[in-house]
Amino acid sequence: MDNNAPGSGGFKAGLGNLFGGSAPEYSNTELAGVPLTGMSPLSPYLNVDPRYLVQDTDEFILPTGANKTRGRFELAFFTIGGCCITGAAFGTFNGFRMGLKETRDMAWSKPRNVQILNMVTRQGASWANTLGSVALLYSVFGVAIEKARGAEDDINTVAAGTLTGMLFKSTSGLKGVARGGLVGLAMSGAYALYNNWDHLTGSSSSSSSSRLY
């Protein structure tokens, strides 16, 4: 059968009109100049210029005055929930370990299982409550300091961590408050240093290279 017959051309044109217009025909010379990778040139197989599919900007719309990153108030829910789940998981593991240690002289029976289960439940709830309370205090202090200062930076993180440690150990006297504040300061300072490590190392490397040249 001859594919160049008028009937076959009409059939191809009909299919082209059915799917959005007749497809343009390209010569071998034009097809040889089309690279296999990249989306800058016009594709010979589509009726759409692939350059319109490349997005150089963000593909989401933000409200007027909104930030591209989540604020402390939005992250507070994730922080509190994550700390509660982490505390429950750690408390469960610790309770299971303590239950096995305390009942190692008992045979595997229902009383031993109940005692281990009680230890797991008690430790899981205790650790979840502790870490959840710390996360709640840290989030409240962080949001309050951010609103008071009108800025979001590492100063808020360090201040919120220090105040959280002081308030959490406020029932242990002045020495306990001081120890809690130092622990909070150290942990929040280490977290702020971790977040800015790339920036600090980049600045130090650029300054050293500038001194060499």
Structural class: mainly alpha
Biggest β-sheet description: none
Cα shape: flat
Strand content: under 5%
What do you see in this structure?
The protein has 213 residues and is mostly helical. It has 7 helices and no strands. It is flat.
Nutshell version of this structure?
This protein has 213 residues and is an all-alpha fold. The chain is 67% helix and 0% strand. The protein is flat and about 75 Å long.
SSE topology sketch:
Blueprint: H1 6-18, H2 28-32, H3 72-102, H4 110-149, H5 154-168, H6 173-195, H7 197-212
Helix pairs in contact: 3-4, 4-5, 5-6
Index terms:
disordered N terminus; mainly alpha; single chain
